[in-house]
Structure formats: structure tokens, C-alpha cells
């Protein structure tokens, strides 16, 4: 596989099954290298069909996505920027011309039909007021830290539908709330929405759920959990369901809760429906008898059914799947009897499958990337090893070189996930962001993606093991994986490399200050100075969660766990990559480490700033550069200059 193969790969997302279970809509994304943008289109396939029956519904340049079925099942709506401002459009599953459903004055965000099909609710920003426009003409548009302009708020609007077209939308949510998500009541008369006091990101921890029955009605707070929550369903039998951890800060499981109401409409204390599931629970379907959720499980992903009785869990979670593939993106028919989902594994990219819920027998509906059948891929498997830090069992996904034979010692590169509560999964790992895993495999590298303590998929205890200890035992977990691959005769100890993005970049910086075992390193958007990072990032609470004290409460701890304080130890050739407009881990962090390594002069180093790019590089052309530079860096420092590909 080459970088160009990866750039040509189609991605699959947003699977949506029709209410009657007859159709499956999904979104296919392709890179348009000439226009330097992502092109997304809506496709459908009949649930009783197969790959020969797929149909592309949208063809316009730009972004057509977010398919949502009308409750009748006769047509589906989707979001499109084809006329500039993003609006909702409709189209029949058997094709034909799309029609414009909304004509709102600003771009429409998420949207949902009322269950009776007669109303459409959506989230959008208000237009700036005339007073705001006049003021901006006089004094410009200064940025007042932690404040926002009118059009940066999100409000909830409701429009009546006539002949499948929305009339003038009416704002329902009050001005003092920033709406994040909403659901309709079963009778289509009210909405429940999650909102916070400001669009500023840090207010997310203090969000609440409100119920409102009309534009002039009061928005009543019905839940206000620590850490915030959002409504995800409102079923006639099961009631209102919200998603949240129930904790202000930390690494606790995200649970699904039922909000009971007294006879007078007063909300009572929420009841967890997923407390017995030691994982982050994502809603797929709920009715009076069952709850279906998706969750990560170690390096896999699966679906669970939880029986319900009298509004409470009536038994343990039951795995619905066969464990043969990585299953994600599930969507259910209205009665929950049929599921559409994606399935993939180390040798096969994701495709759409359909299965009965009670008898799991997934049938493949699509073939999104048939070209991969002709590519030689490295074998992928899951490895386990004991950490030198207390013997904790650690897992990782290992991709072997193409044509690997047992006993061969080969160069190996670490690709470390971010988060730190991210996860490396046993799925189709052609690439991990900046790091083209299967390209490396074709070059003769083994690639190890470790799930160090703090990773998701292993339960709440494991996810919290690095709280107060980042750049501690979590790095030892990773480094122990390198030892294990050497001991097992796979990795060549003289040809090792380390890389990672975001918190993986943090680990890369830290690792090369602690050991000189790596012959090359690539750090993407990593933090190196935790004191300055606390005040530069848009999520300073992250360090309050993972280190405990704030910097001024324990300067020594922040200095001790900052790679910058040990930068004089770096002798590993280092490539640094970061988006110029990264707000999560600002480019200043990368510049700071680069300048120090360059000034010390013990290691060659290169810094690449990607113009106008956020925390993840989105431009297809710059993605090509991102991956190609990593390929060239490993070739230069591990395989040798003579192996460089022009």
C-alpha cells in the first residue's frame, strides 16, 4: 500500500436505517485532491439487497451528509452546503431530484423530525443583530477571552412541515442557553434539549437537560448532573433517556439514564440503565422492553442488549454480536428488530451489514473499497504484555510487515494514540491519522499501537489508572511493549522508532527525553511544557483531571512531568508536525520544543506547521504531505538514505 492508496480510500459513516427496516442510508466520503477538499455523498441500499443494489443519491460538489429518515419512511432528509449556507434537503430512496426542506437565514446544524412527521426541529445560530453589525463597523471584531458573539450561540428552532417542506422556523430555546442536542417527545408536542450557559467549551461540564412544550413556554430544567449531560431518546414506554457520566471531572463511564417524572410533571432523580456495563455506553435503540447500546470492548467494539422492566435494567448486558469483526455505527429500525451497522477487521475495510437483532447473522450490503482486494497487507493481531510498572496487563495492536515470517527481526515503529482515553482497535488500520500503518508494513516495519493505562475499552478502573500520573507508569506501559516485542523476536532493538499525535505526541516528547533507544521520532501536536500548556489549551480542566492540582498549586509536579524540563537529553532525530490553528494543543508547544532541540544541537530536528489547520489536519493535500513526510523520515533514519523514495 502507498500513501496514494490511502488518499484514494473511501470512508463510510453515518449509517441510518429506515423506520420500517427496508432501507439503509449511509455517507461515503472521498478526497478531491484537485479541489483540496472532502466530498461527501448520501447513498442507500435496500436491506434485502446487496452490493449490486447500492444507489448513490447525491452528486453535487461539496458536502451532502447526515441522512435522517422521515417517520413515514417514504423519504429521507440530509444536510447540504450546495447553496452556500448549510440547509436540510429531502430525497426519495429510489432516487430523483432532491428538494430544499429548510430555507433558514443561517446554516442549519443537527435536525430531527417529530414522531408524527409534521414538524422539523433543528439547531442553528441566530443572525447578528443590527446593533452588533453597527458596533462591528465602528470598532471591528475584537476577541474578548471567554466571550462570544451572538452568531456563535446555537438555538433550537421548530418549523411546521407542509408537503414535505418546512415553513418559517420559530425559535423555541431561550437566549441564555447554548443548545447542544435535542429529542422530541413521543406525542410530538415537546422537546428535551441539552444546553449550557455559553458556547465557551469549558461550560460543557455544567450543562443540563431542559424540557419545553412551545415557543412561548418555559424551558424547565429536568436534570443537572455533575459533568453535564445530553438527551438521546424519548420513548413512549421507556421515557426520557439522557447520556452523561454523573461526575464533574474524571475518567468515569458515560452512562445512559432514565429520567422519571412525577404525576405533576416534576422530574425525579435519574436512574442509570447501564451501571452494570463497565464501558462508555452509546445508545442504539430503546423501547419499553430493551435497551441496545454500542461500546468498545478491549481492542474490539460490540453491541449489548439490556432487558428493561418497569423502567429499570432487568438483567446484565448481553453481547449481541459474534466477536468476529469490529462492529460500529449501528442504527436500528423503529421496532428494534433489525440493525444496520459497519463491520471491519484487520484485512477488510468497513462495509455496511444488516442483521436481525435477536439472531445475529450480519449480511454484507456494500463494497465501498473493492480495490483493497488487490493490495498486499501486513497481518494484524493483538499482543499482550506485563508492564514493568506493577505487572499490569497491557494490550496493543501489532501490524506485521507484508510477507513476515516467524523469527524475522524487523524494524518497528510505535504509533501511540491520543486522549489519553483514546484506544487502538483491532480494525482496518490502513492509517492512523498522520501515520500510514499499512504503508509502513509494506516498507518492512512492524507497527505497535499500545493501549497504555488510561485507554478506553478496558473499563473504568483501567481508564483512571494514569490520573495523577501522566508521563509516569503510562509511559512505562508503552516502553514495556517495546521490550516484549524484542523479547519475542519480532522487533530489532537497533531499528526502533516512536510516533504519536496529540497525547501520543506528548508521549513521544516524553519518551525521547527518557531513553535513547529510538533511532527516529515523529511528534504530532504534542504538549511538552505542562505549565504553559495549562493556559494555552482550550481545555485546561484536562490537566486538573489528569494531574490533580493546578500548576500554581504544585509547580514541581508540572515541571517533573514536562518533557521540556528534560529536553537536554534528546539525541533522537525528531520530526514535529502541527496545525497552525490548533486550539487543543497550540502550535507554540511544538515550536518551543523544536527551538530547544535545535539550540541544544544533539539531534537533527524539523518542524512543519500546516497553515489554517486545526488539531487534526483536514486538507487532503496537506494530509498527503503529513503522511509522506513520516514515510520519508522513517526511511531516512531507520532504513537508510539509500532507501529514500523520491
Descriptive key words:
5-stranded antiparallel sheet; alpha+beta; 11 helices; 35% strand; 646 residues
Poorly predicted tracts of residues? none
Structural class: alpha+beta
Q: Quick one: overall form?
A: globular
- Cα(first) to Cα(last) distance is 16 Å
Provide an overview of this structure.
With 646 residues, this protein is an alpha+beta fold. The chain has 11 helices and 38 strands. It has an 8-stranded mixed β-sheet, sandwiched between helices. Strands 9, 10, 11, 12 and 13 form a 5-stranded antiparallel β-sheet that branches. It is globular and about 70 Å long. The mean pLDDT is 95.
Can you summarize this structure?
Helix content is 17%, strand content 35%.
Architecture blueprint of SSEs:
Elements: H1 3-7, E1 11-17, E2 23-32, E3 37-46, E4 55-56, E5 64-69, E6 76-80, E7 87-92, E8 95-100, E9 108-113, E10 119-124, H2 130-139, E11 155-162, E12 165-166, E13 170-171, E14 178-184, E15 191-196, E16 208-212, E17 220-223, E18 229-235, E19 239-244, E20 255-259, E21 271-272, E22 282-286, E23 290-297, E24 300-309, E25 312-313, E26 318-319, E27 326-332, E28 338-345, E29 348-356, E30 363-364, E31 380-386, E32 393-399, E33 410-416, H3 437-443, E34 446-451, H4 459-463, H5 473-487, E35 491-501, H6 503-514, E36 520-524, H7 530-536, H8 541-547, H9 555-560, E37 574-579, H10 587-600, E38 605-610, H11 620-639
Parallel strand pairs: 33-34, 33-35, 35-36, 36-37, 37-38
Antiparallel strand pairs: 1-2, 2-3, 3-4, 5-6, 6-7, 7-8, 9-10, 10-11, 11-12, 11-13, 14-15, 15-16, 16-17, 18-19, 19-20, 20-21, 22-23, 23-24, 24-25, 24-26, 27-28, 28-29, 29-30, 31-32, 32-34
